[in-house]
């Protein structure tokens, strides 16, 4: 199973390339509408969000979608449409979020998407709005104390994240096991089907807050800049300018800091 994640990633990028070739002819044949203007005319911004990523995006006890990403998206709507409620949230997963951004099924994706050169080949990104480190989650009684201890062990990763590629570089002898969502991976860890789970520290932290029987290794690995992802191309130029401006202003006014503090990030 360790190569499944690589195969899935290859298929995703191939599908996106095929889509661009087939449905996006040259500028001489077809001129795309400006994405920012389309959002303004529509009066609603469509935001892709992961609903299985507490404290970023999740459903609370009343069934309401909430979290850092939700609050952040509403502030983006405030900057673009002057109304934080003019948002349509569309569920995405780590496996399909880039496809949905590149095909225009959503206007933007706010879902702890790490900015990488490979991803910039298929989608555009805003400037970074936050940073994380790749971390390791293990059971409380585990003998694992460092990254090197993962050699020869089963380590869970989420399909579509940067964790698999990073871990293969750092511990090539680890046996990777892929999962579609964090909940399934966490259950597998608890049941002993995997020895560790790797992802961003900000995401894994929630499991340690809810469950005293798991712990994170103290040292993080790799730097993960988060950006807002959206369709690549000239049609997104104004949208990127507006997003970058909004993020800079939110940082200057400590809006992002207040949202992070609210969700204990």
Outline the fold blueprint:
Layout: H1 4-23, H2 35-42, E1 45-49, E2 52-53, E3 57-59, E4 65-66, H3 68-81, E5 87-91, H4 97-102, E6 108-109, E7 123-125, E8 130-139, E9 154-158, H5 163-170, E10 175-179, H6 182-190, E11 196-200, H7 201-210, E12 214-216, E13 221-226, E14 229-231, H8 237-252, H9 255-262
Parallel strand pairs: 1-5, 1-6, 9-10, 9-11
Antiparallel strand pairs: 2-3, 3-4, 6-14, 7-14, 8-11, 8-12, 8-13
N to C succession of SSEs: HHEEEEHEHEEEEHEHEHEEEHH
Taking all Cα atoms into account, the compactness measure Rg is 19 Å
Largest sheet, in brief, is: 6 strands, mixed
The separation of the N and C termini measures 33 Å
Specify the overall morphology.
Answer: globular
Mean pLDDT: 88
Summarize the structure.
This protein has 265 residues and is α/β, with parallel strands linked by helices. The protein has nine helices and 14 strands.
Structure commentary:
With 265 residues, the protein is an alpha/beta fold. The chain folds into two domains: 4-129 and 227-262, D-Maltodextrin-Binding Protein, domain 2; 132-224, 3-Layer(aba) Sandwich (D-Maltodextrin-Binding Protein, domain 2), CATH 3.40.190. The chain is 37% helix and 22% strand. The protein has helices spanning 4-23, 35-42, 68-81, 97-102, 163-170, 182-190, 201-210, 237-252, 255-262, and strands at 45-49, 52-53, 57-59, 65-66, 87-91, 108-109, 123-125, 130-139, 154-158, 175-179, 196-200, 214-216, 221-226, 229-231. Strands 8, 9, 10, 11, 12 and 13 form a six-stranded mixed sheet that branches. Strand 3 (57-59) and strand 4 form a beta hairpin.
């Amino acid at each position: 199973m360790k190569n499944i994640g690589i195969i899935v990633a290859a298929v995703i990028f191939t599908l996106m390339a095929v889509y661009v070739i087939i449905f996006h002819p040259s500028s001489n044949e077809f001129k795309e509408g400006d994405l920012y203007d389309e959002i303004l005319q529509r009066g609603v911004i469509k935001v892709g969000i992961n609903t299985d990523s507490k404290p970023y995006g999740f459903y609370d006890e009343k069934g309401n979608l909430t979290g850092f990403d939700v609050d952040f998206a509403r502030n983006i709507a405030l900057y673009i449409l002057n109304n934080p409620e003019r948002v349509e949230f569309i569920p995405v997963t780590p496996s399909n979020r880039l496809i949905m951004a590149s095909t225009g099924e959503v206007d933007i994706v706010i879902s702890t998407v790490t900015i990488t050169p490979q991803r910039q080949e298929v989608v555009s990104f805003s400037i970074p709005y936050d940073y994380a480190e790749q971390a390791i989650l293990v059971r409380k009684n585990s003998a694992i104390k460092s990254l090197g201890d993962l050699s020869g062990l089963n380590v869970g990763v989420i399909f579509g994240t940067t964790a698999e590629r990073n871990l293969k570089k750092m511990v090539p002898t680890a046996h990777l096991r892929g999962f579609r969502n964090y909940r399934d991976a966490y259950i597998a860890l608890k049941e002993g089907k995997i020895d560790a789970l790797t992802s961003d520290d900000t995401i894994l932290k929630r499991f340690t807050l809810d469950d005293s029987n798991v712990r994170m290794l103290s040292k993080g690995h790799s730097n993960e800049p988060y950006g807002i992802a959206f369709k690549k191309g000239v049609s997104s130029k104004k949208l990127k300018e507006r997003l970058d401006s909004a993020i800079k202003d939110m940082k200057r006014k400590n809006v992002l800091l207040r949202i992070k503090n609210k969700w204990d990030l």
